[in-house]
Design goal:
single chain; alpha/beta; two-stranded parallel sheet
Amino acid sequence: MFSKFEFDGKLNPTFVEGAFKLPLSSIRAYLKEPITPRFIHVGSAGITRPDRAGLDLSKQPPAVRLNKELDFILTFNFGEDLIRESGIPYTIVRPCALTEEPAGANLIFDQGDNITGKISREEVAQICVAALESP
């Protein structure tokens, strides 16, 4: 696993720290009639939560509770604003905690940033492929 922490909130013993770089300053698209997403961005649930007023941190996943201790891992949206402004048809997927479990769980989809739980990496991949085929 590449995440800094496990679903139970403990640090991942196999995580290797390193500088993250996302060398994007802008994204532009020139499409006449976009029908389906051409860009799928997989981010993280919780990115809008760390500074949300009135949020009960005790009911939040480890990444939200420990954002400061985890070097503000959720503070940056890693290019979502650039994607929205680009004109490229897109889908943003913000899964909760990723697992190695097999696909097959009951999934919940929603707008916003309120869901907690866990999802297999396999299911996230299936969602991304399905998004490419859906308007």
